[in-house]
Amino acid sequence: MGTIAFLALFSWYSFFKISPFHGNYKGNLLVDGNPAQFRSLEEIAAVSGSFWDQDTRIAELSGVFKGVGFNFLFYNFGNFRYAGFIPDDETNLNFSAFAYKIGLGYSLAFDKNLYFGISPQYQRFEYYNQYAEGFTMNVGLLHYITRYRFYYEIFLKDFGLSSSEDYNFPGTFNAGVGFILRPNTVVNYLYCKEIAGDGDFIAKGVIHRLGGVYSYKNMLIPSFALYLGDDLRLFNLGLKFNFLKNAFLSYNFTLRKSGFSPVHNFTVGVE
After folding, report:
1. Given pLDDT bands bounded at 50, 70 and 90, which one contains residue 4?
2. pTM, full prediction
3. Which domain of life is it from (predicted)?
4. Can you name the CATH fold of 2-17+27-270?
């Protein structure tokens, strides 16, 4: 029973798939976890947070400087109560579930429009008396085709093996393209397919993300995204506000399928 509950919680909150910083925009580029973006993002320092359900909280610290990217995430899934399976069992335990991930990566520019990046990560998930931990790897490519005003990217995320529970982290293949319709208007598409891992029986399969962003005088930047396929998310609405020359504040609202509460993401930072 404990193992089933562990896998269920591990699946539902798949911490390696959730990042409050991802979904933000830097100029025309959607931040999506591709380490090749580190060089293109140039310089960013940000603190992000998410919450959904009653007790679930996520905190993230992100930074990019001259091609080097760093991030640390901590996930608190709240407190749980175990009362035993036998009617006269007086066992009454309160315990918590949490996870954290830390990653450091680097992006190399082959020329001013072509970037390659790699980012190893360590992640750990704990629930009651069980845990999964291990090292994973993100690797990707980003290419701007400036003549036709679009970019494409291909990257792999979260490939690795747990060193504790023999649990394979769900690695994904991702491919995306962005079209710069105007200097202040971009539409993009991101394809995500889980091609490694087990136990993720809620959000397993293929995800299609259709989105766009508009910049009003580089001060107010609304964005949207629609999710199709095997994902709990339905759509996302975001608003970024730039102030004090290089500071920004952003909010993203994500509506999920019936039975799952919406997700609220906040980010404050400098770029």
Report:
1. very low
2. 0.84
3. Bacteria
4. Porin (2.40.160)
